[in-house]
Amino acid sequence: MSLALFIVNPIAGKRKKGRVINEIKNFCNNNNIDYEFFFTTGNRDDSKNFIKNFYRKDLLSVVAVGGDGTINEVAEAIVNTDIPLLVIPKGSGNGMARHLNMLLNTKDILPALTNGRIIDFDVAYLNNQIFLCNAGFGFDAYLANYYSQHTMRRFLPYIFAGIKALIRYKPHRYTLQLQVKKNNIVFIPFLLTFSNISQYGYGITINPNARTDDGKLDVLVFRPFKWYNVPRLIILFLQKKLHKSPFLTILRISSCELEARTKEYYHIDGEPYMSTDVHFNIRVEKGALKCLLPPKSKYQ
């Protein structure tokens, strides 16, 4: 009998997971799929060790039940293996699920275990930390850290947190050196994002042409702007055309070196961290992760 592992973040999205767990059990029982649950503890090594205990040929899939942070945690344990990742989006922003057209009900996702298709998914690294969606510095990271302190994880609280963060944020007076094709680009950005997917989450599109199977990352450099530019930026944001802003420059890379003037906050798939160094290596491994898509996903 095939086995599916379900890694559940009990606090993702701040919603109880009893209903989704019952749906999983019913589906697996009706389709002769053996299953095991693991509830995340906040220690990434716990879920990684749990998954590694089940490495075997009949492991059907490892299923992440949560948001982008949970997906990142699960992916780290199965990257560069033939074990496919399935996502049941139960987080707040659900950027990866939205990118893959998988913002679906649990009952529409579970058939992937019996009738899904597998795609190759690029995995990016910031030093030794993997990211599947985005990694960022500047205001991007400041907002991630600010929002992580909020107890309500919904779109409107995210917008309010963004407005408050924008008012409070003081651009760091540092210089980031980005080495692309042996050329140094020196700039002081409002935010700097290394993007593997098309959006941040919550439907906030930042780069609609992003692909997760081309072995490339998009570097989004958003230059500082004046307050009188904010209304126009809000309009572009609501129209999902923020990528058309004149303040945004997009570069395509497969690897680069980044140097910050000081230690600072950065984020990995929406999770904030304080750096311990000022030097960063960013690279991408083409197709290093297998992803399982349900029949109803229209992602191409």
Task: Indicate the topology.
Blueprint: E1 3-8, H1 18-30, E2 34-39, H2 44-52, E3 59-66, H3 68-78, E4 85-89, H4 95-99, H5 106-109, H6 112-115, E5 117-126, E6 129-131, E7 134-138, H7 139-148, H8 155-168, E8 176-180, E9 183-187, E10 191-195, E11 217-222, H9 230-238, E12 248-253, E13 255-259, E14 265-268, E15 271-274, E16 279-293
Parallel strand pairs: 1-2, 1-3, 3-4
Antiparallel strand pairs: 5-6, 5-16, 7-10, 7-14, 8-9, 8-13, 10-11, 11-12, 13-16, 14-15
Helix pairs in contact: 2-3, 7-8
Structure characterization notes:
The longest helix is centred in the middle third of the chain and has 14 residues, at 155-168. This protein has 9 helices and 16 strands. The chain folds into 2 domains: 3-122 and 288-293, Rossmann fold, CATH 3.40.50.10330; 130-284, Tumour Suppressor Smad4, CATH 2.60.200.40. The two termini are 31 Å apart. The protein is α+β, with helices and mostly antiparallel strands and 300 residues long. It has a 6-stranded antiparallel sheet. A 6-stranded antiparallel sheet has the order 12-11-10-7-14-15, with helices on one face. The protein has a 4-stranded parallel sheet with strand order 2-1-3-4, sandwiched between helices.
